[in-house]
Write a structure and sequence with these properties.
Layout lengths: L1 H9 L16 H93 L4 H15 L2 H14 L3 H8 L5 H11 L4 H8 L3 H15 L7 H6 L2
Helix pairs in contact: 2-3, 2-4, 2-7, 7-8
C-alpha cells in the first residue's frame, strides 16, 4: 500500500507555460507607434508653423498696405496743400501784375490827355518844359522796370523762352510781347507805349514778320500758348 503511493509521486510532471503578446503589442509594433507619433507630431508642428507663418505674412502685408495707403494719403494732402499755396501765390502775383498794368495805363492816359490840353494853349513856348516832363514820365523806364519785375514774378519763364525762340527780338518787341501775353488790346497797349492804337497795330504786324508766323496764325494766341 505504501509502495504504490511512492510510485505515484515519482511519476508526476511539471509544465511551464509562456503566453506570447499579440503582434500589435510586440516590441517592433510599439517602436513603430512611437515613430509614427513622433512623425505625426513633427508633421503637425510643421503644419502649424507654416500656418502661423502665413498668418504673420498676411498680417504684415495688410499692415504694409495700410501704411502705404496712409503715406499716399498724406502725400496727396501735402501735394494738395502745396498746389493750393502755389495757386494762391500765382493768383496774388497775377493780381499784383494786373493792378500794376492798370495803374500804368491810367497814368499814361491821364498824362496824354493832359498833354493834349496843354498843347492847345496859345502860349506853347512857356509850356514846352512841362510837356517835356510829361513825355519823360510817360516813357519812364522805371515804370517798365517795375512792370517787368511784377510780370516776371507771375510768368518768369516767358520772356526768356520767347527770346530763345526769336533771338532777333528787340527790347521794345519783348515789351510788346509782354503786353500781348496779358491779352491786352491795342487800345490798352497804346498808352503804355505812348503811341496811338494804329501804331500798335503796325508794331504787331512787324512783330509777326520777325517771328515768321503763318498768315492764319493769331499773334496773340501764339504768345498766349507759349
Amino acid at each position: 500500500m505504501a509502495e504504490w503511493g511512492k510510485s505515484e509521486t515519482q511519476n508526476s510532471a511539471s509544465y511551464t507555460f509562456r503566453i506570447e503578446r499579440p503582434l500589435f503589442l510586440s516590441n517592433m509594433a510599439l517602436l513603430g507607434y512611437v515613430v509614427l507619433i513622433m512623425l505625426f507630431s513633427f508633421f503637425m508642428h510643421m503644419v502649424y508653423k507654416r500656418y502661423y507663418k502665413k498668418q504673420r505674412e498676411r498680417l504684415l502685408r495688410k499692415k504694409t498696405r495700410e501704411f502705404e495707403l496712409k503715406e499716399l494719403e498724406n502725400n496727396q494732402k501735402l501735394m494738395r496743400f502745396k498746389n493750393d499755396k502755389l495757386r494762391e501765390d500765382i493768383e496774388a502775383k497775377n493780381r499784383e501784375l494786373g493792378m500794376s498794368t492798370m495803374n500804368l495805363i491810367k497814368k499814361n492816359e491821364f498824362l496824354n490827355s493832359l498833354k493834349k490840353e496843354l498843347t492847345s494853349v496859345e502860349d506853347g513856348k512857356a509850356l514846352k518844359h512841362v510837356i517835356k516832363i510829361i513825355d519823360k514820365n510817360i516813357n519812364n523806364t522805371d515804370d517798365w522796370n517795375l512792370f517787368q519785375e511784377a510780370f516776371n514774378n507771375a510768368d518768369k519763364d516767358f520772356l526768356k523762352k520767347i527770346k530763345q525762340l526769336h533771338p532777333s527780338l528787340t527790347a521794345n518787341d519783348l515789351r510788346l510781347c509782354a503786353y500781348l501775353r496779358l491779352n491786352l488790346s491795342s487800345k490798352e497797349i497804346a498808352p503804355l507805349l505812348n503811341i496811338s492804337p494804329r501804331s500798335v497795330e503796325v508794331k504787331r504786324y512787324r512783330l509777326r514778320k520777325k517771328m515768321e508766323l503763318a498768315h492764319e496764325t493769331s499773334l496773340t494766341n501764339y504768345i498766349l500758348e507759349l
